Amino acid sequence: MTPAPVDQSVVRVRVPAKVNLELRVGPRRPDGYHGLATVYQAVSLHDTVEVRVADGWSVHLRGRTATGVPTDDTNLAVRAAQELAGAYGIGTPVAISITKEIPVAGGMAGGSADAAATLVACNRLWGLELTLEELEGAAAALGSDVPFLLHGGTSLGAGRGDQVVPLLARGKYHWVFALADEGLSTPAVYAECDRLRGSADVAPPQHGLELLGALRTGDARKVAQHLANDLQVAAISLQPGLGEVLEAGLGFGALGGVVSGSGPTVAFLARDRESAIDLAVALTASGVAPDVRRASGPVPGAQVDHATPST
Ligand code: C5P
């Protein structure tokens, strides 16, 4: 396919964070990844990614969670743009501007979200007109969570998390996220999971049927009972304070709680919006989780928010 000529427009894309309602981790594969059976939900904490044609590749970050994100070519958003440009013969670099609301190294796929948003933005900017399915290939090469952030909603994830199937799920879910001061490295948490398992045989990962049933009925209480994360023990082993945060949130009336992805963010499901506000206040006031965010899900994946025509 011959791409349309590059123009001078600006494209802005909003992209959500994710939480894993279930994260079942199989044995370590020969390629170093772990087979997963996961249920993703996209939640209303958003990063905004803006791309515009420029003389060189660059990325600029702002927002209260931007500290610690690389601003060189190792930034996942820059890699996303460069890989798409390479694959489709685009010779014009872009300047990327990211406004961050998603916690960094928090287990909520902040970097992957920015990569997914960049793919969607560059697809529009460069007039590539690639379908979601075509973007998925590039997305999976960038990271296991990137394909899901293109979809959003509530989805099953298989393979290393990159094979995504949208799920029929009812209901709106009210979340409170307790953020940690220090991030956790995803490879370090998987390595700790392997260490704790030692030489024990690990079964292939399988979804819990109860969670899928609860999502079909939209019953938040039942969904909360079946939140599960095989990485949780490893994340708590590396950051023991997470166990106290979980206990405190449940004590303050959360329907359920789970470490989000590889952590260290702890996700609590609340009965409704008012309960979520009460829970956020209780967690903050008690000092157990000084930084909390409320969000709801499911929400759509990376979406073009604004595109100016050529001048
Ligand atoms: O795919 P992504 O780059 O996000 O993964 C980061 C790291 O997390 C991998 O290099 C690997 O160590 C670990 N990981 C894993 N199994 C998965 C996903 C990630 O072991 N399914």
How would you summarize the topology of this molecule?
Blueprint: E1 10-28, E2 34-53, E3 58-62, H1 76-88, E4 94-99, H2 110-125, H3 132-142, H4 146-151, E5 154-158, E6 163-166, E7 173-179, H5 186-197, H6 209-217, H7 220-225, E8 228-229, H8 232-238, H9 241-251, E9 256-259, E10 266-270, H10 273-285, E11 291-297, E12 303-307
Parallel strand pairs: 1-8, 3-4
Antiparallel strand pairs: 1-2, 1-12, 2-4, 2-5, 5-6, 7-10, 7-11, 9-10
The site of cytidine-5'-monophosphate has 12 residues, from β2 and α5.
Q: What does the overall shape look like?
A: globular
Give the helix level as a range of percent: 25-40%
Give the CA-CA distance, first to last residue: 25 Å
Ions, cofactors and other ligands present here are:
cytidine-5'-monophosphate
Which structural class fits the helix and strand makeup? alpha+beta
Rg measurement, Å: 19 Å
Please work out how many helical segments DSSP would assign: 10
Q: Biggest β-sheet, characterized?
A: 8 strands, mixed
Averaged pLDDT? 94
Percentage beta strand? 25-35%
Indicate the low-confidence ranges by residue numbers: none
Helix-strand sequence: EEEHEHHHEEEHHHEHHEEHEE
**Strand segment tally:** 12
